[in-house]
Amino acid sequence: xxxxxxxxxxxxxxxxxxxxxxxxxxxxxxxxxxxxxxxxxxxxxxxxxxxxxxxxxxxxxxxxxxxxxxxxxxxxxxxxxxxxxxxxxxxxxxxxxxxxxxxxxxxxxxxxxxxxxxxxxxxxxxxxxxxxxxxxxxxxxxxxxxxxxxxxxxxxxxxxxxxxxxxxxxxxxxxxxxxxxxxxxxxxxxxxxxxxxxxxxxxxxxxxxxxxxxxxxxxxxxxxxxxxxxxxxxxxxxxxxxxxxxxxxxxxxxxxxxxxxxxxxxxxxxxxxxxxxxxxxxxxxxxxxxxxxxxxxxxxxxxxxxxxxxxxxxxxxxxxxxxxxxxxxxxxxxxxxxxxxxxxxxxxxxxxxxxxxxxxxx
Length: 362
Hints:
Elements (H helix, E strand, L loop, with lengths): L1 H12 L10 H8 L5 H38 L1 H14 L7 E6 L5 E7 L4 E5 H5 L2 E2 L2 E3 L3 E7 L17 E11 L16 E10 L6 H5 L9 H7 L5 E6 L1 E9 L17 E2 L18 E9 L1 H7 L20 H14 L4 E9 L12
């Protein structure tokens, strides 16, 4: 029985023909379990195409990421500079006090606001001059003010963290600040950069009180210009900033145009206005709109061999506050028209110490 069962099993598993050999259909089934050489070559070709496509796709994604990352990185300093200015400016103070004004007979007639501190913003070239050190002042705004930030030239008085400093900001164009002095210009020519400069008059060298204390009629500028030329009082806040604009204004509820307080970008707390509602003498502006125009590092590299700042048309811009938006767009368009790249960054800074009053006539 076992022999018969085994014989039947063999015949069932492997069909045979009359000669006792395996049938052709069984042989073909066994051969189909393997790939032919042509099928392998086709599979390898398809796989190679897929690998090439995947590599190309990954490369394209990496290029996009690198460009986006570089674009974000190169404008990061502009955003950080705007944040720094906003932080300092929001702390601006005048610390005003009131004095009694008398007539010719010595009879008191009114109280008048006074302050030994100053706040000044206006066109950079007329406010500062054409140069500071090796830098050429660029058209736009300059701003100077006091804030209780407690910066000293040494750390001996570092606990006085509310001591006053004078701060200032403006844009200049000139030789790169980080060039090693031992590298000759005959080997590597001088590179030039636009840069946003931060000025600080340290608490242990503050000059404003020596000019203003007990001198209510003082309206000069040497409370900052006297120490502005000191190299240690200036530092580069951000490279590749081609314009800085500051516009003091009232709130929108008090002035819907936003330009009545400073129609020509000029705000000086030592001057008065015949209109009490706009009289900024010894008063801080409630809000200051700040804008910076930054160019890319690639753009800066293309113009860095020019000893004079490129003509972007800034000398014709930022004269009327009502045109601020249009002028910023014009500047960006002028830069783009030269095949360069620029971006505009803006913010509004409320000054916490501002106590705007419409009740003074001095």
